[in-house]
Amino acid sequence: SDLRQILATKSVENIQFLPFLTTDANNLSWLGYGCLKGDGTLITVNAIGAALQTLYILVYLYYSPVKRPMLLQVLLLLAVVVTGCGYFAILVDKGTRLTHLGLFCSVFTITMYLSPLADLAKVIRSKSTRCLSFPLTVTTFVASSSWTLYGLQLHDPYITV
């Protein structure tokens, strides 16, 4: 719905950038975890999610009148991803790599779910829920519940988080 609104209005007004960015970081992290674990479900879902989030970021940047702050955030995300890849590939031994990456992914997931709280300040200031997406809120709840159940089924504490 946010993407449709951006395309329809050709504006990013009332749409936060941070949730797109943290969700992309989350998808990229879980994609790495899925590849390391060899879990086709994690790989498929997060590859599609990362591609879509990257598309959303590009559309957001295109329609944003002020690009510099968003570009700096994207560069910071890329630096974190590259640093994380280097850390897991070079510094973490193979025996503990999955555990460390799972913890890393869990932190990103928590960050992703906290990022919409940035909208809460705007809601309180404006006394309007116009900037909150009800469909996105419901979808996020359903998706997170599904991942929790999947993690419980696999006995994987990181996916469960």
TrEMBL record:
| Compartments in which it is found | Cell membrane; Golgi apparatus membrane
Keywords of the record, alphabetical order, are: Cell membrane, Golgi apparatus, Membrane, Repeat, Sugar transport, Transmembrane, Transmembrane helix, Transport
Establish whether keyword Disulfide bond is in the entry.
no
The transmembrane residues are: 43-63, 70-92, 98-120, 132-152
Q: Its membrane topology, per UniProt?
A: Multi-pass membrane protein
InterPro entries the UniProt entry points to: SWEET (IPR047664), SWEET_rpt (IPR004316)
The answer to whether keyword Membrane applies is yes
Q: Which GO terms describe its molecular function?
A: sugar transmembrane transporter activity
The GO cellular component terms are: Golgi membrane; plasma membrane
Q: One Pfam family, short name please?
A: MtN3_slv
Major subcellular site: membrane
Question: Family, per the entry?
Answer: Belongs to the SWEET sugar transporter family.
Function, as annotated, reads: Mediates sugar transport across membranes.
Full protein name:
Sugar transporter SWEET1
**Native organism:** Malurus elegans
